[in-house]
Amino acid sequence: MNYFLxxxxxxxxxxxxxxxxxxLYFVVTPRYVETELLQSRLVAVAIITIxxxxxxxxxxxxxxxxxxxxxxxxxxxxxxxxxxxxxxVLIIKLVFDPMDSPEMYFFFMGILFSAMxxxxxxxxxxxxxxxxxxxxxxxxxxxIVSVHFKINMLIWICIFFIGNGWVASSRLHTNSHTYPELIxxxxxxxxxxxxxxxxWL
Length: 201
Prior knowledge:
The chain has one domain. It is 73% helix and 0% strand. The chain has 8 helices and no strands. Helix 1 packs across helix 7. It comes from Marinirhabdus gelatinilytica. Keywords: Membrane, Transmembrane, Transmembrane helix. The chain crosses the membrane at residues 7-28, 40-60, 81-99, 105-124, 136-162, 182-200. This is PAP2 superfamily protein.
């Protein structure tokens, strides 16, 4: 059980959530997307949200700005979150057009607002669960996409709600977060996606 709970934090890592949400959208969307365009966007999202942050992490660790990938100290979160916000702006400006792909554009807008909220809270010395924030945002996005396209995605939504519980249990099991930090992470991931719905649904 110990290994199972710890595994949840790695399989559902916040860095993987933007790519996972993008991949699931392109799997279920009824809109036609050219294969080359699909591949280029997935590669762009993977590079900007996973590869670059990993490189930045090693750079920051070598500079002594952060000590570990877990970012246990709230002060260590400020620079990585600020960089993440910049990378998300890059995706919004260069990868997804609001006229061509409104769903993905506002999905990443929601992620940006979540990251900015986490950054502001870090300056206020409150540490939320970034794991919980990431999976909660994707869960809400899937619910909205299901309603928007009138697609039955109940199985995927159930899987992600189970994933939310898995992540929360994992973070509590390892004493990485408290209940308020998990609840805060859930709502900060969930609410921006919900609040942006009127702009594109």
